[in-house]
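#dry-run=false #mode=assembly
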Amino acid sequence: MFAVEVRDHMMIAHSLKREVFGPAQGLHGATFVVDAAFFTQDLDDDGLGIDIGLATQVLGDVLKPLNYQNLDDLAMFAGKVTTTEVLAKHLFDAIAAKIAAGELGPGSGRIEKLRITLHESHVARAWYEGAL
Amino acid sequence: MFAVEVRDHMMIAHSLKREVFGPAQGLHGATFVVDAAFFTQDLDDDGLGIDIGLATQVLGDVLKPLNYQNLDDLAMFAGKVTTTEVLAKHLFDAIAAKIAAGELGPGSGRIEKLRITLHESHVARAWYEGAL
Amino acid sequence: MFAVEVRDHMMIAHSLKREVFGPAQGLHGATFVVDAAFFTQDLDDDGLGIDIGLATQVLGDVLKPLNYQNLDDLAMFAGKVTTTEVLAKHLFDAIAAKIAAGELGPGSGRIEKLRITLHESHVARAWYEGAL
Amino acid sequence: MFAVEVRDHMMIAHSLKREVFGPAQGLHGATFVVDAAFFTQDLDDDGLGIDIGLATQVLGDVLKPLNYQNLDDLAMFAGKVTTTEVLAKHLFDAIAAKIAAGELGPGSGRIEKLRITLHESHVARAWYEGAL
Amino acid sequence: MFAVEVRDHMMIAHSLKREVFGPAQGLHGATFVVDAAFFTQDLDDDGLGIDIGLATQVLGDVLKPLNYQNLDDLAMFAGKVTTTEVLAKHLFDAIAAKIAAGELGPGSGRIEKLRITLHESHVARAWYEGAL
Amino acid sequence: MFAVEVRDHMMIAHSLKREVFGPAQGLHGATFVVDAAFFTQDLDDDGLGIDIGLATQVLGDVLKPLNYQNLDDLAMFAGKVTTTEVLAKHLFDAIAAKIAAGELGPGSGRIEKLRITLHESHVARAWYEGAL
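#status=ok
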């Protein structure tokens, strides 16, 4: 199986208002360096799994509404705890929707699996991976 | 599938006393930067795959008996060759035991898979991944 | 499952002569930092998945005919577009052939899976992974 | 000249309320991976520039009041814009004060220079370096 | 002294046609991950050494004429050997000219020193640093 | 000023037998990823600060007598504590001697400064930098 992975990042504020989070219950923030990996069984006639330019564009597009935001204020996260895992799944769903809409180009339908990894520091990261 | 991965390290001495290891048959050592990845199908009500604080604690706990040691002197490795692969499996088993004992918190039972990666230099690493 | 991964690199010129590649249609180049991961179910009596020295040797051997070359001039890529994905598959096939020929030592037959990752920059990479 | 450098991190929220910051004027956040480098002309009788354990302790101590905070709420930053550069200087001053107080051990007086680097993403960082 | 450093990259082909370069005499290529560090003695009223957005813009601007090119074909390098060092100096001069032209904003005049680092692989890099 | 930096590594055992080292007093070990940076004011007619091939060769040569060794057993370190700083200075002296002997080629005399960095983990490193 082939995979193409591109990287971008976002810088957000949020609070994790549950007892389990200890000091992270207060308003703080994070840089998330985000990797999006697109998996295909085959390559197209141009030797591509996906168009890396479109992949980079789509990753930037889904990060844009979150970047430089306080996630506590965003309607899309109302009632949710915006842990790294939850954000990975949110970005997975957002990119999956764009793939379904054909925004990864003619090869969109070939993408079988997607993995979104969020690096939150030099010692911790989380990811969500799923079939499409 | 979700995964949460945390990082720590240990600095050990050992010798690999088999002919295949060439110069590594003598007493030498390594820094192993160790990643532990915990895989779950779902998140709990707090939006967590696992509690990253407990994950970091447990990784530190299993590294502690090895860190700053000469592995050749440790009873737990008697008769074994402490290659990077063997150490990855050793740490996998040690963390798996802690998961079974509930040390990863109420969500311990949700962990389906575990991967332990040991980076031994900028050009070599090894890992062991298995279901729980 | 165990894995051992080693790293090397190559520096090549090429052109990607299809419209989809935009500015990359012209002659340009890349450094590819290449990781080769060898997967086995078990370890041998020496505690090895594979011999890491042989793995490094074999990776260097398959990179050698490409390193410092203009890929457009190589017969092995005639009629092909040498995308990162295509190169990952090319190196996969080349190492798989060496495994089949026993060049990974007596444990060659134990290798069940292989993954070749090419890092083309700090923001993009691709890989091919397959069973042997 | 010798240098010893240690790494830790902090996760903070803040807003940069000046027109020049564009979208970063709103409340957002960052993970800062922080390196502290301690420079000495000589080593002590134990072969040390500084005690790396104390260095790590002191770095953690100065990060603690900022970690998991909204910097906009902290009295120490009242009237300041908490850019990466300002934070680098803040941490420099905080560690310099601890060095002056002898918290780096008997060798504190030997430290001639200090550099604090804040990595805010995979593509941007800032530092402040000064004599003591 | 303060520094702000930003990162980008370029992918180029070239040949190094002198005997000393051995196999690199032929046409090959490289990805250069490029860091540009801007040094100032002080910060402005907004807490900035330089505007990081402008820094990123200017770095992208000087890379653009080289990116996806065969450097052997560019008039600006006629009669030159485009080693990593030569390219570091070329980019230094190009950014220094933009600083002199005020393209780093009102704070351009405050920049005292500049360093351009080119990472050509995971094991080699070169840089040029100079006063302005 | 120009710099060219190359990377290699060594894996050693040692003990740090002074009270200040706590648990590191016992026999343990480390992987040191080693960077050697060579500084020159000018480039030669081939556009080189130094010959990167020779730099890599010389770095490998000075690491060889230490790699896969127990430093406690080496005569060259008798009576010394082999801290990261001491090892940085040892490697500095060894490479400086080779530069003095002309082993960096005809441009050896142009090297004005040398810096040796030892990365001992993902969170700690030390270096020695000096004029030649």
